[in-house]
Amino acid sequence: QGQLVESGGDLVQAGGSLRLSCAASGSTVSNYGMGWLRQAPGKDREFVAAISGSGAATYYGVSLKGRFTISRDNAKNTVYLQMNSLNPEDTAVYYCAAARTSAGNAATIPQDIGSWGQGTRVTVSS
């Protein structure tokens, strides 16, 4: 339910940081778990991070904990992905996704995606 619009993708040097934003319209963000997925050139879609409807629980993909942080501001109807220590393997189109439920257990969100946005491109140079 609703539309998701990602922003914040950019060209950045290795070791740098970016913050992606996902603005939701047409629905109440607090009612849904949210997540981020990415797809690198020539590779399959990969789960990045997820957060419960309340923001109390988070879940991260393999090898991403400590570098990426997902957060949400339900008052602004927005979800964020803070990306630090970026490397060229992080180059991808990043997609925001909404789960079908509020998902108190964030680990269930990757298998409960109901909608997603058009993506924002992140390019990390060596």
Task: Describe, in plain words, how this protein is organized in 3D.
The radius of gyration is 13 Å and the shape is globular. By secondary structure, the chain is an all-beta fold. It is built from no helices and 11 strands. The strands form 2 sheets. Strands 2, 4, 5, 6, 9, 10 and 11 form a 7-stranded mixed β-sheet that branches. A 4-stranded antiparallel β-sheet has the order 1-3-8-7, with no helix packed on it. The chain has strands spanning about 5, 10-15, 20-25, 35-40, 45-50, 60, 70-75, 80-85, 90-100, 115, 120-125. The model has no long low-confidence stretch (mean pLDDT about 90). Helices cover about 0% and strands about 50% of the residues.
- The class by helix and strand makeup works out as mainly beta
Please give the radius of gyration in angstroms: 13 Å
Average of pLDDT? 92
- How far from one another are the termini? 39 Å
Low-confidence stretches: none
Tell me, briefly, the overall form: globular
Number of helices: 0
Extended strand count: 11
Summed up:
By secondary structure, the chain is mostly beta strands.
Top keywords for this entry?
globular, 11 strands, 0% helix, single chain, 7-stranded mixed β-sheet, 126 residues, mainly beta
List the SSEs and their pairings.
Layout: E1 3-7, E2 11-13, E3 18-25, E4 34-39, E5 45-51, E6 58-60, E7 68-73, E8 78-83, E9 92-99, E10 113-116, E11 120-125
Parallel strand pairs: 2-11
Antiparallel strand pairs: 1-3, 3-8, 4-5, 4-9, 5-6, 7-8, 9-10, 9-11
